[in-house]
Amino acid sequence: MTGGLRPVGLIARREFASRVKGRAFVFGTLAVLVLLGVYAAVLATIASGEDTARVGVTGPATALTGPLERAAPTEGLALTVVPQPDVAAGEAAVRAGDLDALVGGDPARPRVFVESEPDAALERVIVDATTSVARDGYLSGRGVDPATLDAVVAESGPVVVAAEPPDPQAGQRLGLGLTGAFLLFFSIQSYGAMVAQGVVEEKASRVVEIVLSSVRPWQLLLGKVLGIGAVGLLQLVILGGAGLAVAGAAGVLTAGAGVITTLVSVLVWYLLGFALYATIFAAAGSLVSRQEDTQSVLSPVTITVLLGFVVGFNLLTSDPRGTGITVLSLLPPFSPLFMPARIALGVAPAGQVVLAFVLTVAFTGAVLALGGRIYANSVLRTGARVSLREALGRARG
Fold it and tell me: Is residue 273 assigned to a domain?
């Protein structure tokens, strides 16, 4: 038997190289990158596009020209007001598609002619304009200057004093936190299951027997976890970097939003979380010898992680400072998923971060020891499924 960590490195490099060069990794990563590119293009189109409208005015309704132009920006509408010589010409322009609407008659209660039905934003603009004209007319008729009243109203209103000033980047922090949690969940689930499948494949093909003639079971287990974990980390970095680039290009993410802190915390917690879950998955995979039996031993783990993720995700979005998500982020099985998100949001005190880290490291160490024992007792046993009691027995060799 070869001792030390050198075999671990060799196994990790073999796993990393074989997975990275595989079609699943290459095409899967490219597919996600293409989707991100399409998403970025759609966002850019939406951001650059602006609703436009052409409205004709005729007769006394020409008084609405100024109010219509002032009301349009509040609805995000680029409005062009086109005076019409008469109602008949304006209606003909609407039917021909040259105008979206024709406004005529009394400015306070005008007649609006459209082809079918008015656009919702355009209708709101017309309502705002007519309301403004009616209000100004009412005030002027009673000797009140509308401009003076507007100035008085503009200077009124409450002055809000907050004990804690609002964080202008809270939305970005929440987005980063939730994205980090999702990427960690996706990567841990995908590549953790890949570790288990690799173990089953080697057992079924009897390759593991040849490998274990040169290395110890714990070396093989650790090498697989490190190698496949590096593949997952590589994909996480690629997709995370592409996602940040898309968010930056779309203008939904700006510098100073805790990007560096979030990235560092996601990477650190990813390494801890993957070591934890990949060991569990590898130990579970070593209990069976056929691919069709893999899901049965992985289901308890995947269901537990899924339920925890769903509950934690809801708690995180509703109350990131609440007791529920705080406790969940301190529990080692779920700390890697939610502590980075709470760090990104700026709601995790340093003491909680340190406590979660220490608990997760200790728990991961215990799982590695226990998982290594299960793996060593089960990986060479083919045929019937190995019971957990047998797997926890005294290790051989």
Answer: yes
Distance of CA 294 to the CA centre of its chain: 29
Sheet containing strand 77-83, strands side by side: 77-83, 51-58, 101-104, 111-113
Mark out the alpha helices in the chain (DSSP H runs): 6-20, 23-48, 65-71, 87-95, 120-141, 146-155, 170-205, 207-211, 217-250, 259-285, 294-318, 323-330, 335-345, 350-378, 388-391
Backbone angles phi, psi at 321, to 5 degrees: -100, 0
State whether residue 51 is helix, strand or coil. strand
Contact 358, 351 (CB under 8 A): no
Tell how strand 77-83 and strand 101-104 pair up: unpaired
- The secondary structure of 98-131 as a DSSP string is S-SEEEES-TTS-EEE-SS---HHHHHHHHHHHH
Rounded to an integer, what distance in angstroms lies between the CA atom of residue 130 and that of residue 108?
5
Q: Same structural domain for residues 243 and 137?
A: no
Q: Which domain holds residue 289?
A: 169-391
Distance of alpha carbon 255 from alpha carbon 248, whole angstroms: 9
Helix, strand or coil, per DSSP, at residue 351: helix
Which residue do the tokens 């609805």 mark? 75
**Cβ neighbourhood burial of 331 (10 Å; 0-12, 13-18, 19+):** middle
- Bridge-based pairing of strands 101-104 and 111-113 is antiparallel
Please tell me whether residues 221 and 325 are part of one structural domain: yes
Bridge partners (DSSP) listed for residue 112? 103
Do the Cβ atoms of 325 and 316 come closer than 8 Å?
Answer: yes
pLDDT averaged over consecutive 10-residue blocks of the chain (397 residues)?
71 86 82 76 59 90 91 86 93 92 91 86 90 88 85 82 68 69 76 78 72 77 81 81 72 62 77 81 76 80 86 86 91 88 84 92 83 72 65 55
Same domain assignment for residues 142 and 177: no
Is residue 184 domain-shared with residue 333, that is, in the same domain? yes
d(CA 315, CA 323) in angstroms, rounded, equals 9
